Amino acid sequence: MSFIEVKGLKFRYPLRTNETLNIPSFEVREKEKIFLFGPSGSGKTTFLEILAGVLVPQSGDVFLRGENIAAMSEKQRDAFRGRNIGFIFQNFNLIPYLNVRENIELGRHLQGRESDSVLLKKLTAKLGLTSFLEQSVSTLSTGQGQRVAAARAFYLQPSLILADEPTSSLDYDHRERFIQLLFSLSQDLGTTVIFVSHDRSLEKLFDRSVALMDLNQVSPVDDRDLEVEV
Amino acid sequence: MKTWFVLGFKSLRHRSFVNSLTVFSIALSVFLLLVIERVRHSTETGFTQTISQTDLIVGARTSGLNLILYSVFNIGQATNNISYETYEELKKNPSLEWTIPYSLGDGHRGFRVVATSEDFFKHYHYRGQEQVEFKEGQAFQNLFDVVVGAEVAKELKYTLEQKIVIAHGVTTGESFSNHDDKPFTIKGVLKPTGTPLDRAVYISLEAMEALHIDWQSGAAPTPEKRIKAEDIKPEDVRPKTITAFFLRTKNRIETLRLQREINNYPEEALTAVIPGVVLSELWRSLNYIEFALKSISWLVMLVGLGGLLSTLLTSLNERRREMSILRALGASPLHILGLLTIESALISSLGVICGVLFTYLSFAIISPILKSSLGFILETGFMQKTELIYLLLILVFGTLIGLIPAFKAMRTSLKDGLILKN
């Protein structure tokens, strides 16, 4: 059984006449590391949001570990997302008024899960954050901020990491080092990774490279994504 | 739950400047609400307890309200007097603890002159247990001694041993008909009481008789008929009438029986009223003042809560990213709703706490000044039930107001999804 299985997915934003996504089929194996690329406006973020259960398609199924997110209620999707999916964003999206430790632990606390000091220690050691734990996130460098975002995502012990252009603000050396760290952590925790980027120089590092244009039967012009990403 | 409170608290601290302003605005509203409520309550207490520990006020047949107005508030005129014999007869009643005779009719530069006995200084009570006290000097010892109220002394800049002249009749200012052949010497100045006592001049009943000894049918004597002060003998100045008298019974149960007895007194038409009852009725008839003060309080509160709503709504747009992150980390829309509601509850609570502290601090500073300068007793004790209800309502409304931006944020967080990349 596939870890992710998308079948007959069709998605259109409300008040829009054209569909943004029309993906007849897409599969990901467990622990696979996918490089998903496509130009701006091709619907990459929309696709991630559907995989995360933030957006619901008008038709089609999105199975994750055998559970159809598209058929869940909003409450079920929220709970499912909290348990199974970790996000790493382009601009880290750390909460500015919390310190490094609080940012990492926030997700578990929001879900009412107990802290795991062993995992926290292991993650922060691996990501070189041990000495910054009590520091405010506003004082961190770009690289440190990105590592905190990764620690926060993995601390949830998700089965899937969705990384949306997380290396766009790093130089090539740092990008590669960050991706290696990401792989090492996903190896340790048995996590599947879908990494979105338009920088194709990174695709060789992944198990599989997928062009969204090949999956999506809609031409890559979506003014919603353009509004946000431009 | 603890996570949400911690998150709410840290989030508020992060925008401390704007939130401090909101807390300050609510604190100020709470302060004004409590001050107005305290002033209103203190005024009511001061008014209804202008006279206390007096069970009945007795005067010539008139309405209860009129009797209270002229005998306690120095307003209006007595319709008639009571004969001194009647007063002495009633005074013999064994159920009485004490009486204070009052004779009115003359004035001094706009202030009433009250002729009374030394019992006034011994027994007159106001605001519960408060008694008439001397700021300086003492009660009248000689016929032409006078004691002045605090406001009279302050306004007319009077000091002990100063000579003053009583005017015939009650005037609003200077009089053309003065008893200037019989000047009085100020022997005592009363402490401020915050009651009409402060605006009166006190002489003895005998002095009132002495002033009018040579007056006939309300007319001033001709120079040849004038009797000099030094020629007046004690037996000539025995009071013939008084305007009213205050009495206290030995047993409160006797009051109603005594009231009925006096109202049916066969020798003279009299009216006896229970001051507390009439004063409460009078205050209730002035309830538009209370309504106006309460309305101002609530308008002030409305402005404070409006400020809270405006701050929460304004900060909402800046916080769309924060809401998206929380959603991505597993927070449900209800969690977002809860977070913002907790924040508004925290702001309201802080505002209420600061407002209460600020109020009590101000009371501690202002209350002694008000008491010594105006005789106004601002109640500084623990909060009344009404005030606690008001504060509770502010907290409830403050929290409920948070639901407006919270619902908006909940809907926005769903709409935004995770798209806020920059």
Concise account of the structure shown:
The complex is a heterodimer of chains A (230) and B (422). Chain A is an alpha/beta fold and 230 residues long. Chain A has helices spanning 44-51, 74-84, 100-110, 117-126, 142-155, 172-189, 212-215, 223-229; strands spanning 4-11, 21-28, 33-37, 59-64, 67-68, 85-88, 160-164, 192-196, 208-211.
Secondary structure elements and their pairing?
The complex is a heterodimer of chains A (230) and B (422).
Chain A: E1 4-11, E2 21-28, E3 33-37, H1 44-51, E4 59-64, E5 67-68, H2 74-84, E6 85-88, H3 100-110, H4 117-126, H5 142-155, E7 160-164, H6 172-189, E8 192-196, E9 208-211, H7 212-215, H8 223-229
Parallel strand pairs in A: 3-8, 3-9, 6-7, 7-8
Antiparallel strand pairs in A: 1-2, 1-4, 4-5
Helix pairs in contact in A: 3-5, 4-5, 5-6
Chain B: H1 2-14, H2 16-48, E1 56-60, H3 64-71, E2 82-83, H4 84-91, E3 96-108, E4 111-116, H5 119-123, E5 125-126, E6 130-131, E7 134-137, E8 145-148, H6 150-156, E9 163-164, E10 184-190, E11 200-204, H7 205-211, E12 241-242, E13 244-249, H8 254-263, E14 270-273, H9 275-285, H10 287-318, H11 320-328, H12 333-374, H13 385-401, H14 403-416
Helix pairs in contact in B: 1-12, 2-10, 2-12, 10-13, 11-14, 12-13, 12-14
